[in-house]
Design goal:
Two copies of one chain form a homodimer. By secondary structure, chain A is α/β, with parallel strands linked by helices. Helix content of chain A is 51%, strand content 12%. Chain A contains 20 helices and ten strands. The first copy, chain A, has a five-stranded parallel beta sheet with strand order 2-3-1-4-5, with helices on both faces. A five-stranded parallel beta sheet of chain A has the order 7-8-6-9-10, sandwiched between helices. In chain A, α2 packs across α10 and α11 runs parallel beside α20. Chains A and B meet through α6 and α16 of A and α6 and α16 of B.
């Protein structure tokens, strides 16, 4: 879990500052909410030595009135504690209803440390893990919010920090023997921590890995998860469940507004390229069929962006026995009565086939989010659920390609007006299209968030600049060809 | 999980019949409740070949209108299914909101089978387990009730059933090659099933192991868990969580009403025994201290049963530096604001010490249950939570002894009246005692359930027949001595 974790990209400093300010203000309002709802909140900070847990914790609690929280730093066991069950000193520290308890180091630190130093044997360690799982489950079952953070820095970064602390007389004392030992045995520790996180990563009390290289960014991540976690717990009455951290490797994704849309092709270039690409794709289609590789192409985009025409240029070259296009409208009653991914599981291609989705499961985090067809907790959870879904597909062997067909607002207006004024195109434009157009800005926010959170390395998003439809069509064909060729 | 499972005792046939009738009626009322709450219910039956899944399933569905459920039997993969992701054929079968789906065999059967037959390698199997965990979590996160049952029979029983089926021409066809293979490789299969259950035993979708030796008993267990599981899901708004199966080995426990209370000692016998026992205990106390073994003695019993006097006879012989008595009253505000076990964790003895609790954590399933101080889900969950708590204590090395001090209703009345009429005893009797006395019958039901569900082999209950207090005191001392000697 920790070993294959790939950190998300860190935003620019300015962006971090803005988010921090917002999150700090939001956290400050939470203290009375958790008091009113009698919610006990246990925040556990674990991680590598010198990863900055203490300093981030110091910043976090500045936003909370001292009457609402306690902080406890893991210390050496007292003689009294050594004479009690190992969970004793942890259990007695749990917060009371309506308050926070912050633990700087906890049972993870204790048992992994004892195990690494050989103070407890394998069997005892396994028993401890079971005890810890029961303990955490008992807390959440009884209404506790348990937030577990692991501060991650790599071996080099840890070494750098330790050396810097050692170099200064006034900070030298902050480096413990344990820190030095940990850095020297980084890989061994990594193995144990990785397994510990995996074993104790229960869905009601999941682990959140914090990229701790930059302090402000670490604070931002932690505050973000805390604030969302508290919101979730407070609305637990509506079957809200914890938002799991997105553990999928993500690609760098530009914001929609930053994408230049001036690309175009002449009619001649277009004809030439189209012919070439379609012939190529037809050949590849046979090869896919022969080698039984399934392909899933997902289209999303603004109304009138040219999805339909784009799809036609793809299918134009394909053998009809080997592909299907699934136009996705509002779910039917029997579909609405099931998990929102059900209707897509039902439409998966056989191996060797191509399935093209004209609108997709991303409706969950766009229209369903914005029209209130699902709860906030539902769509917040959906990014991870969708990434898991697509991972099932790629693990199965599918090539998954997702196109966002992009136009600007003016181009949409032009096309809408054209549709309205052209009798044979009038069926393509509805009042709903106009209503959606009015919500362009909120849609753009949702789409940017969607692209950021689901642009995985295994199922990437590709933006098709479609102010010039011809350009977008050729680009789609070329991407498809390239991705298939990569696989073959 | 499966390997160390010890089945609970099967009730008498008559008792089973009675419970079955009640449970069938309750299940019948559930169908409209789940429809009204749009709750989708997925019931998964797994287990050994010839364990009787199909026949129990046949009985269960008789209580449900066919419009409310579907049944799907695991079959050989179709050519179509083989060409889709492995979860495909399972995902498409999920129930719709407000209905049941019963799966006779599911993904467990599929992946463990493929793994056992060597059709998938270790790495693929691990990946499948991860996929299954995500899949089940996605279902429960999205509001599905997922009930997973494993029908357990031992190797001999399976062999007997297979032989019986084979011996009859009309049933011979029901024995598959897989069943024969499974029986021949019972231990190997057991290893794989055990690990599978452990790995996929998530708290929001836990496994329930069904003792399938007797069909009516199997049906009773399954119905019981189903009905309670549905109740839990329907009240999810109040933070209700699944009731985990009690996985602790339980001792046979008589009902309170069946315990004869005519035992007594003469004053002379009592004096003699008391002196002998107290001297013995004093010696053992030193030994416990020297060897640092902690002892926890829990007292529960009817008002005026004689707990106080009983405790005095124990402590009378102990060195005051080595024991503590904790009288447990209603929780203080700071205790009420925390997990109900918190105040007991805080009162644990040091190793080598004896802690005696005059009333205990069992208040959760007696007074808190009956006075409505906690929700039904809370006290239902508490049996398992308490067993887990006591397991922490015994794993730590403690001797845990629980006394139920038993008297009959007449004796209580006598003692109450005596207290009322004796000025120096009047402080011992309150209006509340009289009120509780009126609830004798409901308390007795709760106490019987408590004794049944928490009488574990590691932390057993002992009943002290206390119509004659002298008899009860000597019995307590002797049990204490015996249990300590066993350990030393």
């Amino acid at each position: 879990m920790l070993k294959d974790w790939i950190k998300s990209e860190r935003p620019e400093t300015e962006e971090i500052e803005k988010r921090l300010e917002d999150l700090r203000a939001r956290l400050a309002t939470k203290q009375t909410e958790i008091r009113d709802h009698k919610l006990p909140v246990l925040v556990i900070l674990e991680g590598w030595g010198a990863a900055g847990k203490g300093s981030v914790l110091g910043k976090i609690i500045r936003n909370i009135d001292p009457r609402f929280f306690k902080v406890s730093t893991q210390s050496v066991k007292t003689e009294e504690e050594m004479r009690k069950p190992f969970l004793y000193r942890h259990f007695v520290k749990i917060p009371e209803a309506g308050k926070y308890m912050f633990l700087d180091g906890s049972w993870m630190d204790e048992v992994t440390g004892e195990y690494l130093r050989g103070e407890i044997d394998e069997a005892t360690y396994r028993k401890r893990l079971d005890s810890i799982k029961s303990f955490e489950r008992q807390l959440t079952d009884n209404g506790y919010l348990v937030l577990k953070f692991f501060f991650q820095i790599d071996e080099k970064e840890q070494k750098k920090r330790i050396d810097a602390l050692l170099a200064d007389k006034s900070t030298k004392w902050r480096v413990s023997k344990a820190d030095l030992w940990q850095n020297k045995h980084y890989d061994k520790c990594m193995d144990v921590y990785d397994e510990y996180l995996r074993e104790t990563n229960q869905s009601q009390a999941p682990w959140y890995i914090i990229d701790a290289k930059n302090k402000k960014w670490a604070e931002t991540q932690l505050l973000d998860i805390m604030v969302n976690g508290i919101d979730t717990a407070l609305t637990n009455g509506e079957h809200a469940v914890p938002i799991l951290q997105n553990m999928f490797p993500l690609r760098k994704t530009p914001k929609l507004a930053e994408i230049p849309l001036d690309k175009s092709l002449t009619e001649e270039e277009y004809r030439e390229e189209l012919d070439k690409c379609q012939k190529k794709l037809a050949k590849l289609h046979n090869e896919l069929y022969r080698r039984r590789i399934p392909v899933i192409v997902a289209y999303e985009g603004w109304d009138a962006a040219g999805k339909g025409g784009n799809i036609k240029r793809i299918t134009g070259s394909l053998d009809p026995r080997g592909f299907e296009v699934h136009p996705i409208a509002s779910p039917e009653p029997h579909e609405k009565a099931r998990h929102y991914l059900w209707r897509f599981w039902n439409r998966l291609p056989k191996d060797g086939h191509i399935a093209i989705f004209d609108r997709t499961w991303y409706g969950r985090v766009m229209v369903e989010r914005l029209e209130g067809f699902c709860s906030e907790n539902d769509w917040q959870r959906a990014y991870n659920e969708i990434n898991e879904f697509e991972k099932e597909l790629t693990d199965w062997g599918a090539i998954v390609i997702k196109f966002w067909v992009q136009i600007d607002k003016d181009t949409q207006l032009e096309r809408f007006t054209d549709r309205q004024n052209t009798p044979e195109k009038q069926w393509k434009i509805t009042d709903e299209d106009w209503r959606n157009r009015e919500k362009w800005d909120v849609y753009e926010i949702a789409i940017d968030e969607m692209l950021q959170k689901t642009n995985t390395t295994t199922a990437p998003w590709f933006v098709l600049e479609s102010n010039d439809k011809k350009y977008a069509r050729i680009k789609a064909l070329k991407i498809l060809i390239e991705e298939i060729e990569k696989r073959l």
